[in-house]
UniProtKB/TrEMBL annotation:
<feature type="transmembrane region" description="Helical">
    <location>
        <begin position="81"/>
        <end position="104"/>
    </location>
</feature>
<keyword id="KW-0812">Transmembrane</keyword>
<protein>
    <submittedName>
        <fullName>Folate family ECF transporter S component</fullName>
    </submittedName>
</protein>
<feature type="transmembrane region" description="Helical">
    <location>
        <begin position="177"/>
        <end position="199"/>
    </location>
</feature>
<dbReference type="Pfam" id="PF07155">
    <property type="entry name" value="ECF-ribofla_trS"/>
</dbReference>
<dbReference type="InterPro" id="IPR009825">
    <property type="entry name" value="ECF_substrate-spec-like"/>
</dbReference>
<feature type="transmembrane region" description="Helical">
    <location>
        <begin position="111"/>
        <end position="133"/>
    </location>
</feature>
<feature type="transmembrane region" description="Helical">
    <location>
        <begin position="205"/>
        <end position="230"/>
    </location>
</feature>
<dbReference type="InterPro" id="IPR030949">
    <property type="entry name" value="ECF_S_folate_fam"/>
</dbReference>
<keyword id="KW-0472">Membrane</keyword>
<feature type="transmembrane region" description="Helical">
    <location>
        <begin position="49"/>
        <end position="75"/>
    </location>
</feature>
<feature type="transmembrane region" description="Helical">
    <location>
        <begin position="12"/>
        <end position="37"/>
    </location>
</feature>
<dbReference type="GO" id="GO:0016020">
    <property type="term" value="C:membrane"/>
</dbReference>
<keyword id="KW-1133">Transmembrane helix</keyword>
<feature type="transmembrane region" description="Helical">
    <location>
        <begin position="139"/>
        <end position="157"/>
    </location>
</feature>
Amino acid sequence: MKTSKINTRHLVAASLLTAISIILTRMFSLIIPIAGVQALRIGFGGIPVMISGILFGPIIGALTGTVADLIGFMLNPMGGPYFPGFTLSAALSGFIPGLFYHYIFKKDSKLNFNIINGIMVVLLSSISAIIYLQAGNNISFEFFIVYMIGILGFILIPFRLNKKYKKNNDGYRFDKLIFTISITTIITSLILNTLWLIIMYKLGFIVIFPFRVLTALVTIPMETVLIFIFSKYFKYTK
């Protein structure tokens, strides 16, 4: 991918993505309480922020996430106090994809990132399960089957999609997208946002982390598929 200079057209497009992010996050997100607090939010407000980073680079991506979080909180705090850590996470949600697509992926690599991503998923899922079990919790056989199906689907489906659509959309290969979104989610959601929730609400790491991992196993493929579908229109923003 080639780096691009910031221009008015990019700023206008980033502003539109910011507005879409605010709407998706503040109006169409599902809040799931854990231990009596709003510890888990499921939504697609991060997609426009990541797209901004992918298209226009890490700086505009970070600005998109920052502005979306600040204005979004002012419009609808969603029942929680403001915490600057979440603004940092939002900024990184745009910065990290921009960093990958404008610098790390600048040289076309033949490496299949699905393999790396699969290893990360197995390790993360295993760590999460160990933490959950060591806390004295039990896992039912049905839950274990669903959990394993989710992990296998997360690993195998991208291989199939990447092989099928690689020639049609080589600039935004599916394996690169899911790898980028996985890294972004791990850093911003699983690490930083979990830390912010622990600081704010004094929640136990063992209480919330396994649920956040399980949510990530669902949302990462969905976000990747949506961004991959939208990527065929990215050329019109350049």
